[in-house]
Amino acid sequence: MPLRLEHHFEPRFGWMNDPNGLAYYEDQYHAFFQHNPYGPIWSAMYWGHAVSDDLLHWEEQPLALVPDQWYENRGGCFSGSAVVKDDRLYLFYTGVSDELGQAQCVAFSDDGRYFQKYRHNPVIRQSPNGSADFRDPKVTKIGGTYYMVVGSGKDGVGCVLLYRSKNLLEWDYAGVLLEGAQYGRVIECPDFFPLGDGFVLMFSQMSRPLRSTMFLYGDFDGETFTPKAEYTPVIGPHYYAPQSFLDERGRRIVIGWLYSWTKPLDKGADYAGALGVPMEPRWADGRFTLFPVKEAQKLLRPEDPLVRTGPGFVEIASDYEQPLRWEGDVRRVDVLRDTKTIEVFVNGGEAVFSYWFGR
Q: Which residues are tagged catalytic?
């Protein structure tokens, strides 16, 4: 059997992909994730669940969501998000059924372990643009209003749809937050949150093997998001579908999926996928960065045999089909190496490599 990761979460058995619900609740960090508990391949989706006291060591919990309702009878419980309101933990997810296709649903818990699905699910039954791609609801509270962004796309044009709510159960459509063919035919796993003096719209693009996650920084007036800058700091290639949350100290923390759809299964493994190192996004002096949280910084090293640096470049030795290389003014390099993965941070997170080298 392959070595287990020491500083990242992996499931005991089966497949995992997107972290689809991150929250700090009842004095612990909670990470929910897309999961096939029956084998190391993608299939009908369940929600796995893990908890941590320090963001580095995770303990797997019983399944949080099982596809047992009519509105989940085709594809299961797809990705979504987690929100704490009035000491209750809410999960938002996409149920996939023969009757409705992709629709948005809610479950909740008062102990963070056992979840009850809302009896009036789905709370959003169909896409306003008529697209079959309508998934990955991410909910964020801004001021006194809850906003939900949902990934979609139609006729080759990816888009992010915006909804509003006061109570998390009744949602009003507020329009298209972002759209454009340059973002791919479907935008996946969007996240929208305040950062610094502005707002970040983060999402993933399935058509891009490298730099698949985009961060748009701009202004939001409660109705319209106006992007001012675009960033793709995470080069990858084994990084997708990051999601953010606020912890008990008000830190904005981002965790992504450390793996990829095309990566071969590790030899002898009956499990697949991991969570990337938790990172803090920062915007300062016109510069966007992602860097490991304080708890993980003790694991960083200034060099590694897999990392080559020189005047104006950083390169990862790999057997990936494309060169893993960043070019620019190299002022600092930090490396987090685990048993079979390596994450490299250039200039405090101006560029990030996430590479799974184990086989």
A: 18
Name the domain count of the chain: 1
Cis peptide before 237 (omega within 30 of 0): yes
**pLDDT value at residue 359:** 66
Which residue, chain included where needed, has tokens 């340059």?
182
At 76-96, the pLDDT tens digits run 999 999 999 999 999 999 999
Note whether 209 and 327 are within 8 A (CB).
no
**Tell me: the pLDDT tens digits for 315-342?**
999 999 899 999 999 999 999 999 999 9
Find all residues with CB under 8 Å of 213, minimum gap 6, and list them: 202, 203, 204, 205, 232, 234, 239, 240, 241, 242, 256
Reduced to 3 states, what is the DSSP secondary structure of residue 299? helix
Strands 58-60 and 88-97, bridge-based pairing = unpaired
CATH code of the domain covering residue 20: 2.115.10.20
Kindly report the pTM of this predicted structure: 0.97
For residue 215, being part of any structural domain is answered with no
Q: Which domain holds residue 93?
A: 10-126
pLDDT tens per residue across span 115-139: 999 999 999 999 999 999 999 999 9
Residue 161 lies in a domain: no
User: Is the separation of the CB atoms in 81 and 137 below 8 Å?
Assistant: yes
